[in-house]
Write a structure and sequence with these properties.
globular, disordered C terminus, mainly alpha
């Protein structure tokens, strides 16, 4: 059964955000440190555009693994942000295909580009759950999973605009705290639309997820 056929109700967005803060309680230091490390590594890579592209995929997958663990209140380590390098080729290929699709959409018109970006937004979470999934299948699964949920995702993203503006007044320091808050919220959104739960799933399905999620 496809995701579009098995539809889960999205948990209220305010609840997702509250639960994200609860999940981060006690591990803010770990989450912020991980964010700083990724920002530094990405900044270094930006001096050479090719290196920036190469790093973006594995780091994107690593961040999905890291924040999904937090969202499910599993044990997490700073080193999890680099777990995406275990599937370097697949992560890189996924990132490149995503960006090509988004750029083509933007070239056509801005709105199609945004729709494509939102439709493919769950790709790395899907790969975090199942590292053995193929690149095309992960992209297709994200698109199917977001069918009927694109507007929900867009509105959830808009809820952070005010926080972003406030972070500007902290000379950017606030973004190191806002980023994990946003990413854990989006991870809970993923759990919500895929499994009907904002934190984790129960029973045999949960065991299956935990087995696939990168340790």
């Amino acid at each position: 059964m496809s995701y579009s056929e098995e539809r889960h109700v999205v948990i209220p967005q305010g609840e997702l955000m509250d639960e994200a803060k609860n999940s981060l309680t006690g591990i803010w230091g770990t989450a912020v440190t991980a964010t700083i490390i990724v920002v530094v590594v990405s900044a270094i890579g930006n001096f050479v555009p090719a290196i920036s592209v190469i790093l973006a995929g594995p780091l994107g997958l690593g961040l999905a693994i890291f924040h999904l663990k937090i969202a499910r209140e599993q044990e997490v380590e700073i080193g999890n942000v680099f777990d995406g390098f275990k599937w370097f080729g697949k992560a890189l290929g996924t990132y490149v295909l995503k960006m090509v699709a988004i750029i083509l959409g933007v070239i056509l018109l801005i709105v199609p580009g945004i729709i494509i970006a939102i439709g493919l937004s769950q790709t790395f979470f899907i790969m975090a759950d199942d590292p053995e999934i193929g690149i095309i299948d992960a992209l297709k699964d994200s698109w199917e999973l977001m069918d009927g949920h694109k507007f929900d995702y867009f509105i959830l993203w808009l809820r952070f605009i005010g926080w972003m503006l406030l972070c500007i007044f902290t000379l950017g320091v606030g973004f190191f705290f806002l980023n994990p808050y946003m990413q854990v919220t989006f991870a809970k959104f993923y759990n919500s639309i895929r499994y009907g739960d904002h934190r984790a799933t129960d029973g045999e399905e949960d065991d299956e997820i935990r087995r696939h999620l990168v340790d």
